[in-house]
Amino acid sequence: ATECIDSSDITKILISKGSERVEVIKSAKGSWILPQKSDFAASITKINSLILRFVSIKLDQFVTNIDQNFADLGVSDESYKEGKTMVQFFNSQGKELSTYLLGNEKIQNTGSKSSIQMMPKSFSNQQYFRIKGSKDVYLLPDTLSYDADSSKWIDSIVLNVFQHNLVKVKIEDGKIELLAERVEKEENKVKTYDINYKLSGLAEGEEVDKVKAGQLMLSLESLEAVDVYKSSDEIVTNLSFKYSNIYFENNGLVYTIQFAKNDKDELFVKVAVNFDSEYKIDDSVKNPALKLSSKEEAEKLNNRLSNWVFKISEFQKDRFKLVKSALLASK
Q: In this prediction, what percent of the chain has a pLDDT beyond 70?
């Protein structure tokens, strides 16, 4: 096993790879944040996984302790400058607890062919590994890959509002309203429901497209950002947020999403959350788990979201429908 590191002592992590470097630090409140992203929250899942992987790593397969071989294996002190990965852990006093050097991969043949039974050859990658300050190089039984791009470490889930919890969405700055009416039905003694969509402002001959309407209702479910910027960051201050959608959840929370696109057709959003104190839960909805939210919950969400601009992933951006024509069935 590696030299003993107490995970509770770790308060800063540095990952370096080529010209890239990401820093993650533990705040005074105990949360992990990204200084390169104006102290936006880091993914606790990714951070915990990284720490656990290194504090529990086992080094059983010794390779060499001849330092002239380090560069060829990708584990010299300078190999990270050539694109290999270096992971460093520090404590609250800034002391370097340990530095791990992840080197070249080695392909291992794990299968063979025999005259009795033809077994296809299979391969698994191993990786050369060294702890800085030690001359011993080992082979890991698998490979470790960590990105040094700070955007890959953000807490990427912006919102997760389930489709079936939305009662309506307003688009075109509130001029057009899409209602979702759930009609209960029973099939083979199992109760389910259909969703009927009603779109305001329909002209004669126009019809709402159920698939497109469903995509809009789905657009806040596991909404994921691929990058995040402070509202004052130069990269987003020139964006024009000229569209907005307003989503109404069945617990009284109201989400206002503002949209902007850059010259690369990338989608950016701002989020604001309010609580409708006049909202009443529909008595016909027989769901004992459904409870009214609160102004405090809306403020909690705003504290996390309101000062940021989120860049939305490509596969999710088409869910958003910003104008009425995007919800109409094709003729």
A: 91
d(CA 173, CA 256): 10
Task: State pLDDT tens for residues 95-118.
Answer: 999 999 999 998 766 555 544 455
pLDDT in tens, 165-202: 999 999 998 899 999 887 777 777 777 778 889 999 99
The 3-state DSSP composition of the chain as helix, strand, coil percent (nearest 5) reads: 20, 40, 40
> In which order are the strands placed within the sheet that holds 267-275?
157-159, 223-230, 308-312, 267-275, 253-261, 243-249, 166-171, 176-187, 190-199
137-140/157-159 β-pairing? unpaired
Joined together, the tokens standing for residue 208 give 């709402």
- State how far the Cα of 178 lies from the Cα of 157, in Å rounded to an integer: 25
Sign of torsion over alpha carbons 72, 77, 78, 79: positive
Please state, in angstroms and rounded to a whole number, the distance separating the CA atoms of residues 24 and 26: 7
Query: What is the DSSP annotation of 163-219?
Result: GGGEEEEEETTTTEEEEEEEEEEEETTEEEEEEEEEETTPPTT--B-HHHHHHHHHT
Q: How far, in Å, CA of 129 to CA of 102, rounded?
A: 5
pLDDT at residue number 156: 96
Q: Which residue, 158, 154, 150, is CA-closest to 31?
A: 154
CA atoms of 32 and 17, how far apart (whole Å): 21
> What is the distance between the alpha carbons of residues 156 and 312, in angstroms, rounded to a whole number?
10
255: left (phi over 0), alpha (psi -120 to 50) or beta: beta
Residue in 281, 303, 322 with CA at minimum distance from that of residue 41: 303
Total residues belonging to the chain: 331
